[in-house]
Inverse folding.
């Protein structure tokens, strides 16, 4: 028996990296998982591993999000969990740039996916959750909003917006029994991060933590499952920082 037996979860950006671990973790606890990703082949691969539903979605496009929600309802009849994980990461907007050197097009692209995408997906499931009088939304923010990482002002700003949106949605949806929380991960050694940052940078990052090792994607899965399960039934509007003690307060 898993703690999420009978639940239906959508994970955006679930086709690779940390998102794929979220999908496997939720499925391992009994959830039926929709692996939603803009790269359909990646979604299909992960969905095949967990007997889930693969769906291609562009989270920045309202019609695409609507189709994802409709397909989930058609396949499973309900939605219980939305994990807003899809994002343009810092690794995808290299090299680093000062805030006043970021091209407008690059700024808008990050905001469209990271902020509008989170808003559209949440908007897409909101009526379902109100009707059910239950539901869980978890926004994946970033520890960079605490430390103010330089060189990625658009990414940090977008993740601060995702954090703020979670707090607003928690208040607006609470009367319907819907819980909304956020996770702020530290620098996590996913496959892409390893390629971009390299072993020396990641080792130095580990030394700045209280727990002196690299953070791996699996370090985030337990927190996600906790926030999606009844173990956190009286927790909403909160942020859990998972970074091995890089930032502690």
């Amino acid at each position: 028996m898993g703690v999420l037996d009978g639940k239906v979860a959508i994970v955006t950006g679930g086709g690779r990296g940390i998102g794929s671990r979220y999908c496997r973790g939720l499925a391992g606890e009994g959830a039926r998982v929709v692996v939603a990703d803009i790269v359909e082949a990646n979604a299909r691969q992960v969905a095949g591993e967990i007997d889930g539903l693969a769906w291609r979605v562009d989270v920045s496009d309202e019609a695409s999000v609507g189709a994802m929600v409709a397909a989930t309802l058609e396949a499973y009849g309900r939605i219980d969990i939305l994990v807003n994980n899809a994002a343009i990461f810092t690794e995808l907007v290299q090299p680093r740039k000062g805030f006043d050197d970021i091209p407008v097009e690059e700024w808008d692209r990050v905001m469209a996916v990271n902020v509008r995408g989170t808003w559209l997906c949440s908007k897409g499931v909101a009526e379902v959750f109100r009707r059910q009088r239950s539901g869980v939304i978890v926004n994946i923010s970033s520890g960079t909003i605490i430390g103010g990482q330089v060189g990625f002002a658009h990414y940090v700003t977008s993740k601060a917006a995702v954090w703020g949106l979670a707090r607003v949605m928690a208040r607006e949806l609470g009367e319907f029994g819907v819980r909304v929380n956020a996770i702020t991960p530290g620098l996590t050694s996913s496959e892409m991060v390893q390629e971009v940052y390299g072993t020396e940078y990641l080792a130095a990052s580990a030394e700045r933590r209280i727990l002196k090792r690299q953070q791996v994607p699996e370090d985030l899965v337990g927190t996600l499952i906790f926030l999606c399960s009844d173990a956190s039934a009286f927790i909403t509007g909160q942020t859990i920082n998972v970074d091995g003690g890089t930032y502690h307060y």
Notes: The longest strand covers residues 178-185. The beta strands are 8-12, 32-37, 53-56, 81-84, 135-140, 178-185, 239-242. The helical segments are 17-28, 40-50, 62-76, 104-132, 144-147, 153-173, 191-207, 218-228.
